[in-house]
Amino acid sequence: MGILLDEPKFPVIERAPSAATTISNFNLADWLRVTAVTSASIPVGYLAGGSVNIRGPSMYTAGLIGLMGGFMYAYQCSAGRLMGMFPNDDEVARYKR
Questions:
Q1: Tens digits of per-residue pLDDT, 5-50?
Q2: Do the beta carbons of residue 58 and residue 49 sit within 8 Å?
Q3: Locate the NADH-ubiquinone oxidoreductase 21kDa subunit N-terminal domain: which residues (predicted)?
Q4: Which of 19, 42, 43, 82 is most buried when burial is the number of CB atoms within 10 A of its CB?
Q5: pTM score, two decimals?
Q6: 41: CB partners within 8 A, 6+ apart
Q7: Gap between the Cα atoms of 22 and 86, Å rounded
Q8: Torsion sign (Cα): 32, 80, 82, 88
Q9: DSSP track, the chain
């Protein structure tokens, strides 16, 4: 996982969550992050294409990069809530720890 230099400020649900646990902990805000970053990157890729022949491939590539970036951001937020680094009132109530 890594070395945590800061002490958790919120209750710890799981100190080193697995990928499956982290992804299953995604909430609506996490999925909206993925959607927002992906949606914002598609027109940026289209406009960055410049010439008519490369706009389509540039748009798809930027969309995939945005999808991966949004997923990694949501993953970081979800893992942070499980490890007690971010506010996690919903997770504490759900896991009752």
A1: 788 899 999 989 999 999 999 999 999 999 999 999 999 999 998 8
A2: yes
A3: 8-86
A4: 82
A5: 0.87
A6: 62, 63, 65, 66, 67, 69
A7: 14
A8: negative
A9: -----SPPSS--S-SS--HHHHHHT--HHHHHHHHHHHHHHHHHHHHHT-STTTHHHHHHHHHHHHHHHHHHHHHHHHHHHHTTSS--HHHHHHHT-
